[in-house]
Amino acid sequence: MITNVSGVLETYKVYKTDEKYPVLKTSRQEDFKDTVAISDKAQDYQSVRMALANVPDVREELVAAIKLKYEANKNVVSASDIADKLIDKI
Fold first, then answer.
1. Hey, where are the domains in the chain?
2. CB 60 within 8 Å of CB 66
3. For the CA atoms of 57, 61, 67, 69, what is the dihedral angle to 10 degrees?
4. What is the per-residue pLDDT for 26?
5. In this structure, is the dihedral angle defined by the CA atoms of residues 55, 57, 60 and 61, taken in order, positive or negative?
6. What is the pLDDT of residue 87?
7. In the chain, which residues have pLDDT < 50?
8. pLDDT score recorded for residue 7
9. Three-class DSSP category at 79
C-alpha cells in the first residue's frame, strides 16, 4: 500500500519527460510491400473445395430411378436384408 503519495508524485515528475525522440529510418518504407505465400497443400485444398462446390448434393438421376422402382414395387427390401447389411458393416 502506498502511504507517501507526495513522494510517488515527485518520483514520477523526475522520470516523466515530454521530450520527443526522432525516429531513425534505416531504409525506405516504400521498398517494403506486403506479400502472402500460399503453400502447395493449401492450393490443392482450395482446388478440391472449388471442385466439390460444383458437385450437386443429391444425384437427381439416381433418386429418380430408385423412386420409380419403389413406386413399381420392384425394389422391395425385407427388414432382415437391412439388418444383415447393418451387421455386416459392424
1. 58-90
2. no
3. -140
4. 66
5. positive
6. 92
7. none
8. 77
9. helix
Chain centroid, CA 10 distance in Å: 53
Set of cell numbers at residue 41: 497443400
CA distance 77 to 32: 69
Cell of 65: 430411378
pLDDT of residue 67: 86
C-alpha cell at 85: 447389411
- List the Cα angle 67/72/77 in 5-degree steps: 75
C-alpha cell read off for 24: 531513425
How would you label 13-42 residue by residue, b for 16+ Cβ within 10 Å and e otherwise?
eeeeeeeeeeeeeeeeeeeeeeeeeeeeee
Residue keyed to cell 497443400: 41
Reading the block at residue 25, the C-alpha cell is 529510418
